[in-house]
Amino acid sequence: MANVFHKERNDIMQAFDRFTAYIHEHPEKVLQRLGDGA
After folding, report:
1. C-alpha closest to that of 23 among 34, 13, 12
2. SS in 3 state form for 1-38?
3. Are 32 and 38 spatial neighbours (Cβ–Cβ below 8 Å)?
4. Predicted structure pTM score
5. Per-residue model confidence as pLDDT tens for the chain (38 residues)
């Protein structure tokens, strides 16, 4: 899971951790963005 924004493995892992934390903290916003309209 590498891309141009995260060159190092540690950067990728930190970004993934932030992403999953956001999902757990704001599930309603995530569902709205996915089109569920929760």
Report:
1. 34
2. CCCCCCCCHHHHHHHHHHHHHHHHHCHHHHHHHCCCCC
3. yes
4. 0.61
5. 455 666 788 988 998 999 999 999 999 998 998 886 55
